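Narrative of activities, Objective 1.

The group set out to show that a structural description can be obtained from nothing but a protein's sequence at a throughput compatible with the screening campaign. Below is one input-output pair from the validation batch, recorded exactly as produced.
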Amino acid sequence: MNNLISPITRRAILQKASALALAPAVAPLGLGLMGMANAATQTANDYKALVYVFLSGGNDAYNTVVPYDPTNYDQYYLRRKGDVSGNYSGIAVLRSKLAATALSTKGLPSGMQMALNPTMGGLKRVFDAGRAGILMNVGLLKVPTTLKQFKDRSVPLHGNMFSHTQSRDWRRGAGKAGGWGGQVADLFLDDNPAASLSCINVGGPGDFLVGGSVRGYRTTPAGPAVVSALSSGKLFGSAAGAQALDALIRQPSDHLMSDIYTAATRGALDLRQTVLDKIGTSVPAKYASWFPAASGGNLAAQLQMVARLIEQGPRLDMKRQIFIVGLGGFDKHDGGDAPHASLIGSVSTALEQFDAAMMGLNMANSVTAFTGSDFGRQLTSNGDGTDHGWGGHQLIVGGAVNGGRFFGEAPVTGTGHSHDARGGALLPTTATEQLSVELGRWFGVSDADLGAIFPNSRNFDLHKLGVFKA
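Output recorded for this entry:
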């Protein structure tokens, strides 16, 4: 086989293989692979990071950002209260519990006020400090769409409306494969000496980090994946066995494909050691103080690892990094308000603690975290929960955010209005790609490249949300 490939081609293939890193898709010895290509087109001189917090299942936006002014609250409560017989309590948050989390009205229509769920006091503090904002009624759209156009199906729409499969479209870039995080990261590879660390998955959906050249480095909240025999120095109790395994992994081969496989595995192991050398094998005291809620693999623990990696980014001469974390369980068709309140409260706590870490590292202006979810949910209760919706509200956190305010168009609370797709499920007034473009532009992506990654964005009036400070 070697005789069929020139030495120059062979060398090029091996050079690419040596840059491979960890990803969840392919697994030699539990380690995945990531290939590098010469795709970079952007130039960056400073450090910036994007952190995608994906809430799987369809977060209930109505019980995350709750109408608080009397008029809108009454409409909200009417559709979410329990029945008069007392058989169930409903899923409405009582207005008396919202006073402590009522928010500034900046960006809202006159007379409207919103409050966060009572469990979200942490995010309320970040919002009040001007480092968090809320984008209202954002969802999947291909073109600006009216209610009549939606009902008539007279404009192009994303497939499988109100289905969990739309979760994938939230993360997708141009084309049918991959995600926009990976496609954005492709553009900055020349600016990242440790190119394999351009995209890092600490617990979210990995497809977001798949680009043309990158696949995403996978780590856990506790640290990079481990080949236990190599880390412990023993294979089935034998030190000699572990040494033999290490030698087998690292030895070159005369067979091209075997040599490529070995180079990829060796590169992954070396990269893992590079990460461990930087972040250490135990949580530093300052991170334990910033993230008191970190436990196991929860969202706070995921963001704690992201913060530790972000601190090392500039020390590795990285210019751009993209991360994804995630939390599931938001598909609440039943169970009342308490399960959702607990989940969204943990999101608030994790984001507040992440903000504290970025402030402590003096990197808040260089890092933006934002949420996404499959869809919003219906306003009307199905009795003890809510069914699938469409548009919803998303959180944006960071020192560069024009915070303490709302972005986009605030929806009317109720049913039967011009943005009620069904049961109070909101027809979005802002497309997901509008948010993605603003994030990408802050990140340093050119308008031309943004148009290529987000082809539907050309159908919308862009750069008007005002998410970031001038």
